[in-house]
Amino acid sequence: MKFGIYPGGRAGTVCSHPPDTAAIGSLVDELSGGHPFVIREYVHFFGDSASPDVIASLGAEDELEHLTMPDDWYAAGRRELDLVVSYLPQTADMPGWLAFLDAVIDRYGHLTRYLQVTLEPNFPIPFIDGSSPGVREALTQGIPHARATLNRRGLEDVRVGFSVAEPPEWLGGDGDFWQHLGGLPDFAAHVDYVGLALYPDAFSPVPPEAVAPMTTHALHHLREQSLPAAGIPATTPIHIAENGTPHDSLSAMLGAIVADRESLNITHYELFSLRDADSASSEPTGSLGLVTDTYRRKPAFETYRNFVDSMCRPGAVPFDAGV
User: Fold this and answer.
1) Residue 315 pLDDT level (bands cut at 50, 70, 90)
2) Helical ranges in the chain per DSSP H
3) Over residues 204-210, mean pLDDT
4) Residue 56, Cα to own-chain centre: how many angstroms?
5) 55 is in which domain, residue-wise?
6) Is pTM, for the whole model, over 0.90?
C-alpha cells in the first residue's frame, strides 16, 4: 500500500496564507521517511465564461504555470504526483475540456503518475464537479481521451481514474450516477483506479465511536454496491483519494482502512491535508491539516508519520489504531 498527502494550504475557497515551500518540503520528507509517497495536486477547467473572481477564489489563476512546489520536487525523493483535473465550467464544453486535458498532459504529464479525470462527479454541490453541466460526459469522454493522449506522448505508465464522494445516504443518493456508468459497456475498461473522498466526521456531528464503522461502511458500499453497478470489477484498485478530519479521529479512520485494504483491494491512501487552510476559520474545511496554517504541528502529524512508518518499514510492528 502506498501513502501520501495534499501539501497545499487550500480547501476549496478557504485559504489564509500562501504556501511555505521550505516548510512543506521538510514536513513531507519527515512524513514519507524515504518511502514512496504520493503527492496530490489540483488543476481546474473553467471554460471560457468563468468569472475571474471565481477563479481567484479557488486560487486557480496560474495552475498551468506551476503547482504548489517547483516541478523538480515532484520527481525527487521517491515522490509520485497524483494530479486531479477538475471540471467546473458554467456551461457544458466538451471540446474545451478535452483540449484542456491535452494541455495539462503536455504541461505535467512527464511528472505525473496518477491522473484523476474529474473531482467527485457524483456530488452536486458548488465548486465540486458534480454540480457542473455535462460532468458525466466530461468523465466518460475524458478518461479514454486522456488515456489516448498519454499513450501518444509515450506516457503509458500513467494510471488514469476518477474519484467519487462518500456513500449516497451522506449525499442524498447517487444511484443514477452509477447506473449511467453501467450503461456504457466500454467505460470500465478504461478505468485504472477509482478514488474515494472520505470525511465521515468533518461536516456533521458524529460520535467518536461511530467514525470507524462509518469509514468501513463507506469502503464496503463503494466496492460491493457502487462499483459493480458501473461494471467496474474487483480487480480495479480503490484509492483513498482524500481523507480528513477536523477532530481527533485520524487513528480510527486509518485503522478501519488498513483492516480492509486487502479484501477490498485498497492500494493507496492520501490524507487531506498537510496544512490547515485557515486555523481560525469556523468552517470544517479550515482545520483539516496535520499542522496549523502557520505550520505548527498538531498531534495528528505524529499519528500519520508513525502510521506511514509502521506500514512501510520492513520489520516494523503493524499499525495499531488503538495505540
Assistant:
1) low
2) 21-32, 52-57, 71-74, 94-108, 135-152, 175-182, 211-221, 227-229, 250-260, 299-312
3) 94
4) 21
5) 2-312
6) yes
Tens digit of pLDDT for each residue in 35-51?
999 999 999 999 998 88
Cα 114 to Cα 145, 209, 221, 248, 322: the distances in Å are 15, 34, 24, 30, 32
Partner residues linked to 115 by β-bridges: 83, 160
CATH code (residue 279): 3.20.20.80
In a domain, 138, yes or no: yes
Helix (H, G, I), strand (E, B) or coil at 174: coil
**19 assigned to some structural domain:** yes
Asked whether residue 162 is assigned to any structural domain, the reply reads: yes
Q: Indicate the number of domains in the chain.
A: 1
Q: How far is CA 97 from the centre of its chain?
A: 20
Give the integer Cα–Cα distance in Å for 288 and 54. Answer: 23
Cβ neighbors of 267 (< 8 A, separation 6 or more) are 1, 2, 193, 237, 238, 239, 261
Q: Is residue 231 assigned to a domain?
A: yes
- Distance in angstroms (rounded) separating the CA atoms of residues 97 and 100: 5
Q: What is the dihedral of CA 59, 64, 67, 69, to 10 degrees?
A: -130
Query: What confidence score (pLDDT) does residue 120 get?
Result: 97
Q: For residue 8, what is the DSSP state?
A: S
Question: Nine-digit cell at 322?
Answer: 488503538
Beta-ladder partners of 79: 37
Give the chain's mean pLDDT: 94
CA–CA gap between residue 93 and residue 99 (Å, rounded) = 10
Give the end-to-end CA distance of the chain in Å, rounded to a whole number: 21
Count of other CB atoms within 10 angstroms of residue 66 = 11
